[in-house]
Design goal:
alpha+beta; eight-stranded antiparallel β-sheet; elongated; 18 helices; 4 domains; MULE_transposase_dom; 14% strand; MULE transposase domain-containing protein
């Protein structure tokens, strides 16, 4: 058999097999179509039925869940704005909070206006709300004349683009009355000035009255579109006076205070100078000492020969609970200048506290040089005098001449002697006046001549004089307190050319009070001023180093007074310092005392 014949037979067999398979499939389809023939469901139809039943169950469960849930709220549809509406100009000004500006719309031909504050910002415009309507309590959301009521409150909104209103703000359904332009400008000006105060730390020293006056001056010089509006603004600002704005301005100034500084914690900005040198040198809960070692070294180098110490009871910080005092020690150098050396903040005023202060200062002075012929001038406080004598045993501890005169004048007034001395009183007596002048001038008399003064033993009055008993009582007080008491030997001023009083410390305290402008200041503010005072002392020492001939600058009347005292003592020195003082007559001594009495104060405080 040929090869091609074999291939034909194979092809015929395959074709016959395919025809038989096709006939069997057709027979199966015909059997399925018969109604009496038993049928078995195919596998695919079963799966479809199962999926359908599952979907029905899921839909029923979801329907039950939807029914059990509370009804959904309808989505809020915000008011739209007509961006093609006419534009009206807006005036930009300061808001109370300062985050967003306010826009003011001035009603044409009227001194009234509507003000709008920021509500929200959209992608293409901003929405502002009428300030007056918000304060009314009822609320209406409005968009360029289309009113949509929501709840029970009122918001009148209008959009602003590039400081221009889209639509007429005065045509809105306002529940408020328009405000006056001048009055609104005044309020915004106060907000702006208070914000400037909060941003400028240098304004911490500004007083409330001064800040109020600055606003008033600003209105007079720079505000108002015309003279009428300027006068209206000045009227509204000044209508209720200073008291109406005082608390607002005071809060702005108080916001600059640093309350973190206390007796227990002093931040580094206050405890050190800008160059890193320590300012706080000693710290306990009851005592702080502040000084610069550089200042003390310069004082020693330029001939420190006297210390003047005094305390003040109104300038201690509020951190001390208004107890204690601010105690300062000044140094006098070569009769050319005095400078504060040490500042102490204390809550107590006992002898132990003063011992710590003087011991700390003595230690610093000894590091810089020797202490030779040092004078310590104090007021007549027993605790400070006792401490100074313990710490400086070889120094001359002296009392203040001014405080001495004040103490004598108070005692004189308490005994009722004053009415015999003043010209305006009917009972003025010349003999009492002459006796009192001798007593006043005795502080400038050499101690060896005090026993030569008859007025110290008895009054120069007849015994039946009504003032005799009073003057005699004063002499007993003089003897018990000043000649034999705790102040014995520390109040005579004979031969002392300068630094007879604690006026250097007193003047410093007055200057410090002027800078602080208040009693019991914040501790942070007090320390800032004390650091500035140390800077002043540094400048004084530089001036003394580079211009040593300047000397101490005194007022003309103080300079004349000093020259007269020195001239008077020089004129009597040759008489009083003779070996044989018997030649000096009593009349000369009493005459000298009366002349020197003119340089003693008559004040009682």
């Amino acid at each position: 058999m040929l090869p091609f014949q074999l291939n034909l037979l194979t092809y015929a067999a395959l074709l016959q097999q395919a025809q038989q398979q096709t006939s069997r499939i057709l027979q199966n389809y015909t059997n399925d179509a018969r109604p009496d023939a038993p049928s078995a469901p195919p596998q695919s139809s079963r799966r479809e039925e199962q999926q359908q039943s599952r979907s029905e169950e899921e839909s029923q469960s979801s329907r039950r869940q939807e029914e059990s849930r509370p009804p959904r709220r309808q989505p809020h549809r915000r008011c739209g704005f007509n961006l093609e509406a006419p534009k009206f100009p807006a005036q930009v000004d300061r808001s109370q909070q300062g985050k967003h500006p306010i826009l003011r719309y001035a009603i044409p031909g009227s001194p009234l206006c509507y003000t709008f504050h920021h509500l929200r910002t959209n992608s293409t415009y901003e929405v502002y709300r009428c300030t007056g309507c918000k304060c009314m309590g009822t609320n209406t959301m409005i968009a360029v004349g289309v009113t949509v009521k929501m709840k029970m409150y009122i918001n009148i909104n209008v959009k602003a683009i590039n400081n221009e209103f889209l639509g007429d703000p005065s045509a809105l359904s306002h529940d408020c009355l328009p405000a006056k332009i001048a009055q609104d400008k005044v309020e915004r000006l106060v907000y702006k000035d208070c914000e400037n105060i909060r941003k400028d730390k240098r304004r911490v020293e500004t007083t409330t009255r001064k800040a109020w006056q600055e606003i008033e001056n600003h209105i007079e010089e720079n505000e108002g579109e015309n003279e009428t509006q300027k006068l209206d603004m000045l009227h509204y600002f000044h209508r209720d006076g200073y008291e109406s704005r005082r608390s607002t301005i005071k809060r702005a100034i108080k916001s600059l205070d640093d309350k973190s500084c206390t007796m227990d914690h002093v931040p580094r900005i206050y405890s050190h100078f800008s160059d890193g040198e320590r300012f706080l040198q000693f710290q306990t809960p009851d005592l702080h000492m502040y000084y610069s070692t550089t200042t003390i070294e310069k004082a020693q180098r330029f001939g420190l020969y006297a210390l003047v110490a005094d305390g003040v009871h109104d300038l201690q910080p509020d951190a001390t609970a208004k107890c204690g005092q601010l105690y300062t020690v000044h140094g006098v150098c070569n009769d050319t200048m005095d400078a504060p050396l040490l500042y102490a903040i204390t809550t107590t005023k006992n002898e132990r506290t003063y011992e710590l202060i003087f011991a700390q200062l003595k230690e610093e002075l000894q590091r810089s040089g020797r202490l030779d012929r040092l004078r310590v001038v104090l007021d007549f406080e027993r605790a400070s005098i006792g401490a100074a004598r313990k710490v400086f045993p070889f120094a001359s501890v002296e009392g203040c001449g001014f405080h001495l005169a004040v103490a004598w004048n108070r005692k004189k007034d308490a005994l009722g002697i004053r009415k015999y001395l003043r010209r305006r009183f009917v009972n003025r007596d010349k003999s009492v006046w002459m006796w009192w002048n001798v007593i006043k001038g005795i502080m400038f008399l050499p101690p060896a001549l005090h026993k030569r003064v008859p007025s110290l033993y008895r009054p120069d009055l007849p015994r039946n004089h009504e003032a005799y008993q009073k003057c005699e009582e004063f002499l007993r007080y003089l003897k018990s307190t000043w000649y034999e008491g705790p102040f014995k030997g520390m109040w005579n001023k004979w031969g002392i050319k300068d630094t007879r009083t604690t006026n250097a410390a007193e003047a410093f305290h007055r200057k410090l009070g002027t800078l602080l402008e208040c009693k019991y200041p914040l501790m942070s503010r007090l320390l800032e001023e004390l650091k500035s005072c140390n800077t002043n002392a540094k400048g004084d020492f530089l001036n003394m180093e580079r211009r040593p001939t300047d000397g101490r600058r005194l007022r003309r009347r103080d300079l004349r007074r000093r020259e007269k005292i020195l001239k008077m003592m020089a004129a009597y020195r040759s008489r009083f310092e003779r070996r044989n003082t018997i030649r000096t007559s009593t009349n000369q001594i009493m005459k000298y005392c009366r002349k020197m009495a003119t340089f003693v104060t008559s004040k009682t405080n």
